[in-house]
Amino acid sequence: MEYDTETPPYTTSDRTSFAYISARDRWPVILTGAIDDLHRAIAACKDDEKIADGKTVLNGLTKLKYELQHNRPLTPLVDDGRPDVADYNRDLAALGSPAWFNVPWLYAECYLYRRMSTFFSLSTHWKSYDVFARQKLSTFVSSRPAVLELAAKYKQLVNQLSHGVVDSKTSEEKDDAEKLLFIEMCEICLWGNATDLSLLTALTYDDIQKLQGADARKTQEKNILVNDLPAAYTTLKAAQKVSPTGQRRLDIVLDNAGFELFVDLILAGYLLAAGLATHIVLHPKSIPWFVSDVLPADFASLLNALADPQALYATPSDSATDTDGASAPLSDQEASELSFLFEHWSSLHLEGQLTIRPNLFWTGPGSYWRLPLSAPNLYEDLKESELVIFKGDLNYRKLAGDAMWPTTVPFSIAIGPLGPGSGIRTIALRTCKADTVVGLPAGLDERLRSIDSSGEDTASRKWAWSGKWAVVQFCDGKA
To answer: What pTM was computed for the model?
Structure first.
C-alpha cells in the first residue's frame, strides 16, 4: 500500500458514494447469483464425490455472503498456493482487519472475488469452474442484432483493407477518412462495455439491444465527456510512418467477456488489417473476476461459438425467449459472416499476430500505481508497446488509484507512475460506473450533478454511476 497515491480512496462507509451502494446492494446479489449457478451445476452432477466437493464450495460462498450482509470483519485469505495471497493479507493487516462497511472500496471488491476464487482453487473437482460463465455466454447470445451488424461490417472492412481498394480521394482526404474510421471503431469498443454484468444485474434482452447498434452509438457519442482518440490515432500513424515494415505492438488490457470481448476482437482485427499495429497482445484475468471479466477460457469459448454459429443461436439463452428472436435460425449470409470472424481471428492467433498474456497482477488487491515495483517484468514488457489500451471501469479505477481526486486533476497526474516519463503510452476507454473521474473541464462535474440529481441533494456523483457518460483519456508516457 506504500506505493499507492496519498489521495484518500473511496470507502464503503461513504453513503454518498457508489462504494456503499455496491457493498449493500450489488455484492449480495452477485453472490446469490454465484450460489444459484453452483447449485445448478451440482444438481446436474452424477458423481457423489464431486457433489460433496461442490457443497463444500457452496458453504464457503454462503458463509461469505452472510459475513458481508452482517458487516463482519474481513478475514485473511486461506493460502491456495498462489503468490498473491500474501499481498492480500499484507494489505488487510495494514488496514487493521476492517469490517465490510468500513473498508476501501477497491480493496474490498478485489478481496471479494479473490476470496471466492479460493473456495474453488482449494477444491478437488471444481478448480477451473467459473460461476459466471453461463451469464457471459447468455449476454453474448442476447446481443445478436449488434453481433450480426458488426460481423457484416467487419468482413467488408477487412476485405477492403486487405485488398487495398483504390479510390479517388486525395492523400489528405484519405487520412481524414482513416482517422474517422479509427475513432468509430474505438467508440464501438468503448460502448461495448455498457453491458457490464456486475452492474446491470437485471438487464433484459430488449435493454441490451438498446445499448448496442449503430444508432445507439451515434446517440451516445455526445456523452463522451473527454475524447482523446485523435491523439491516439496520431501516435499510431506516426509509428507506422517511422517503421512501416517493422514490428509495432499494441496491447489491450481487457475488461468484460461476451459482447465486449467480441468488439475488442473486432477492434484488434481492424487495427491489424489497417496496418496500425503488427501484433496485438490481449491481457485477460487469471481468475473469475468482477462477474464478467475475460478469462483465457472465454476467448476459446467465443471462437468455438463462432465456429458453429447456427448451433449458438439454435438454443435460447437464459436471458432470451423465443419471442426475442435470439433463437431464430441465421440466414446463410449471417452464418457465413460469423464463420469469417472465426476463420480470421483463428488465423491471426495461429500466426502470432493476436496473443493472450494473463498476469496475476491484474487481479491483485491494489491499484496500478504499484505496477513498476510490484510487477517489474510486466512493467518493462508494456514499455515495448506503442499503445496500451485499458478497457472499462475497473481498469480506470485502478489506474487512478480509485481515489477521491478533484475531477479537474489531469489524467496524466492521476495515473501516477504510469504517467509522463513512465515509458508507457496509455489510453483508457471507460464508461463511467464509479465515483472516480479525472481530467474534466472546470464546472462540468457540478453541471452533471445538477442534471442527474432531479432536485435531490447533489452530494453524490450519481451521474458517474450508470454508464451513461464516458471518458477516453490518453497519456504519452514516452514523450
So the answer is: 0.92
